[in-house]
């Protein structure tokens, strides 16, 4: 697959990823290579990665427990201490080998250690490949509130190795698929149409779709790195999706949802709101609803659940001047940003989602 050029870095695929590493990880450029993994990627991905990594620079491995619960400032403190104790300096480089949590927290730690060291993202989940590793957003959660603390700074490179997808359970693959569906809905109707017959896709088809999805996100980010305009379109499904994800994460009575599972719900809800605001036809809305529901199981919400999710909207990082901001569909393949919505319409969206 062809290398994609981002604003200040490149996204390499397959064998070109290891060729890039061999060229860049040399002693006169970097003093030490740190590789951040979680317990899953340490087992399933790290051996293959190290076997293909050709460098004379000293390598140190830092391992975290897996899961969203690790994406906090306390974990950052542990990582800063580990980097210091293992001899990290300003000429060190951090390679983030893992899913979205590893990409987000690893990038944030690299951006803040010694006032900033280089980092490379090597996403090992579908979600991280098409979303978390691309675009320079790095950060952590504040309690159960998603991505409240962070910085935008692009990596040295992103290396996409689809072979790692073979290590994923099916629910993790579906989670990443949600972001790919989003890219079609907000940017490219023809790309969206390719997901109507998922059962017909083979591995090569999936690799092509991954490349296209990354290209779509990169096109958007390249126009608006700091999210003052068109990059807000990537928030479609995330205003309500993040609130749902946060609520299920903090509630003792709920089973936490994967990011993509929550965003899938958010996309249906926000498509309903788009329809009610006359931005989306009834036919388009039902197409979106049924295609997403065919992939993701319906989650039940009580009235209390809905109220608690709505209460969390005020903490959404996209809000401006105390107003909750939505990115809504303006037909399939287009978007309108900075849209407001009253709570009654949100309640109606939840009701329709469950019907």
Question: What does this entry show, briefly?
Answer:
It is built from 14 helices and eleven strands.
Description:
The chain has 355 residues and is α/β, with parallel strands linked by helices. The protein has 2 domains: 4-168, Rossmann fold, CATH 3.40.50.1970; 171-353, Dehydroquinate synthase-like, alpha domain, CATH 1.20.1090. It is built from 14 helices and 11 strands. The chain has helices at residues 15-24, 39-44, 46-51, 73-85, 100-112, 126-132, 170-187, 189-193, 203-223, 238-250, 259-276, 282-295, 303-312, 343-353; strands spanning 4-5, 10-13, 32-38, 59-64, 92-98, 118-123, 137-142, 145-152, 157-160, 326-329, 335-339. The strands form 3 sheets. A 7-stranded mixed β-sheet has the order 1-2-9-6-5-3-4, sandwiched between helices. It has a two-stranded antiparallel sheet with strand order 7-8. Strands 10-11 form a two-stranded antiparallel ribbon. Helix 10 (238-250) crosses helix 13. The longest helix has 21 residues, at 203-223. The N and C termini lie far apart (42 Å). Its cofactor is Zn(2+); Co(2+); NAD(+). Keywords: Cobalt, Lyase, Metal-binding, NAD, Nucleotide-binding, Zinc. It comes from Flavobacterium tibetense.
């Amino acid at each position: 697959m062809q290398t994609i050029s981002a604003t200040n870095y490149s996204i390499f695929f397959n064998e070109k990823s290891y060729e890039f590493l061999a060229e860049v990880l040399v002693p006169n450029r970097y003093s030490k290579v740190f590789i951040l993994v979680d317990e899953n990627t340490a087992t399933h991905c790290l051996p293959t990665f190290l076997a293909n990594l050709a460098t004379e620079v000293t390598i140190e491995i830092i391992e975290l427990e897996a899961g969203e619960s690790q994406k906090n400032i306390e974990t950052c403190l542990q990582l800063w201490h580990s980097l210091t104790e293992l001899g990290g300096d300003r000429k060190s480089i951090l390679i983030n080998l893992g899913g979205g949590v590893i990409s987000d927290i690893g990038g944030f730690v690299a951006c803040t250690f010694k006032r900033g060291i280089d980092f490379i993202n090597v996403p090992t989940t579908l979600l991280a490949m098409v979303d978390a590793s691309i675009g320079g957003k790095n950060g952590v959660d504040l309690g159960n509130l998603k991505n409240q603390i962070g910085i935008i700074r692009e990596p040295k490179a992103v290396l996409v190795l689809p072979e790692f997808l073979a290590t994923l359970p099916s629910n993790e693959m579906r989670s990443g698929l949600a972001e790919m569906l989003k890219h079609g809905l907000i940017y490219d109707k023809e790309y969206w149409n390719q997901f109507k017959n998922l059962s017909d896709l083979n591995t090569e088809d999936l690799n092509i779709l991954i490349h296209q999805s990354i290209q779509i996100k990169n096109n958007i980010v390249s126009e608006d790195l700091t999210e003052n305009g068109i990059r807000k379109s990537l928030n479609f499904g995330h205003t309500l999706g993040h609130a749902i994800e946060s609520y299920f994460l903090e509630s003792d009575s709920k089973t936490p949802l994967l990011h993509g599972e929550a965003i899938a719900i958010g996309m249906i809800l926000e498509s309903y709101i788009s329809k009610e605001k006359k931005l989306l036809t009834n036919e388009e809305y039902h197409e979106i609803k049924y295609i997403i529901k065919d992939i993701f199981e319906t989650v039940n919400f009580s009235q209390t659940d809905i109220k608690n999710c709505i209460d969390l909207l005020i903490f959404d990082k996209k809000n401006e001047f105390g107003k909750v901001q939505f990115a809504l569909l303006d037909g399939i393949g287009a978007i309108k940003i900075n849209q407001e919505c009253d709570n009654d319409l949100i309640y109606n969206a939840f009701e329709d989602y469950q019907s």
